[in-house]
Amino acid sequence: MPMLSATAAGSSALWLSTDAAMAQPEIKVHYGDMHFWRAECIRICLFMGDVEFEDARYQGRSDPAYDAIKHRFTFGAVPVMEVDGRILSQTQAMAGYAARLAGSMPHDPWDAAKVDEAINGCTDCTTDIAGTFRIHDQAAKIAAREALVASDGRLTKHLAGLETLISENGSKGVVAGDKMTVADIAIWRMVGWLSSGVIDGIPKTYVASNFPQIADVCAKVDADPKVMAWKAAHPKQYPR
After folding, report:
1. Per-residue pLDDT tens for 112-171?
2. Which burial class, exposed, middle or buried, applies to 194 when counting CB atoms under 10 A from its CB (0-12, 13-18, 19+)?
3. Which residues, 6 or more positions from 75, have their beta carbon under 8 angstroms from its beta carbon?
4. What is the pLDDT of residue 164?
5. Is the pLDDT of residue 28 over 70?
6. Do β-strands 86-88 and 53-58 pair in parallel, antiparallel, or remain unpaired?
7. What separation in angstroms does the CA of 137 have from each of 110, 125, 142, 143, 155?
């Protein structure tokens, strides 16, 4: 599996330089061959910071390579980061660690906390949708999702929280501070999933029509040169 680092130049995305005294650890990101936000925000954050890592992608739970290593995963699920042979789990922990290695985590404690808050907000949104996948009746499943996206729905409430974070940061198109962080990448990919049309009952235009601040973040991330380079390198997930 390839070791990856960024080569595109000219991006304004990086927030802070990494600690020059910090030795580069050996990193492997374990996940499926998909661009779901929980893993993708970590991959892209590392890529944007020129942090080399092995992108270990599995073809489902029946993949022999996955079967051989799954016993090491602390919570029995992916994504997982392997750092010098040690295992790190949970999205917020991995995203924060990746951001610090990549130099894109704000030094200001408040802004750093806002990055974490947004990551957890994305998790809340994902949990809202995840519950509907356990509904077997298709009509009932769609009805449950329609309730989530109603004006008083739980998904609408959680997305409104992310909208508020961006607004409270001065409507700059980023969640915290003045530059892009891993939280913005997470929001961008989560919204890409919500707006993909593959989740029956969630209109493609739902986020763009109701959450302009989130839409601005997504547009800013999507136009970043290094994000564009990542997308070009992964045409299966990002067809043109």
Report:
1. 999 999 999 999 999 999 999 999 999 999 999 999 999 999 999 999 999 999 999 999
2. buried
3. 89, 90
4. 98
5. yes
6. unpaired
7. 44, 22, 9, 10, 21
Q: State the CB neighbour count (10 A cutoff) for residue 116.
A: 18
Q: Do 201 and 146 contact (CB within 8 A), yes or no?
A: yes
SS (H, E, C) 149-199: CCCCCHHHHHHHHHHHHHHHCCCCCCCCCCCCCHHHHHHHHHHHHHCCCCC
Residues in the chain: 240
As given in the structure block, the two tokens for residue 75 are 């919570």
Distance separating alpha carbons of residues 8 and 156, to the nearest angstrom: 36
Amino acid at 10: G
Return the pLDDT at 23. 78
Taking alpha carbons only, the member of 154, 178, 155, 156 closest to residue 166 is: 178
Q: Measured between alpha carbons, how far is 38 from 32 in angstroms, rounded to an integer?
A: 11
Distances (CA, A) of 211 to 167, 172, 176: 11, 14, 17
Tell me the per-residue pLDDT of 64-111, one tens digit each, with 9 for 90 and over.
Answer: 999 999 999 999 999 999 999 999 999 999 999 999 999 999 999 999
The pLDDT-based confidence of 24 (bands split at 50, 70, 90) is confident
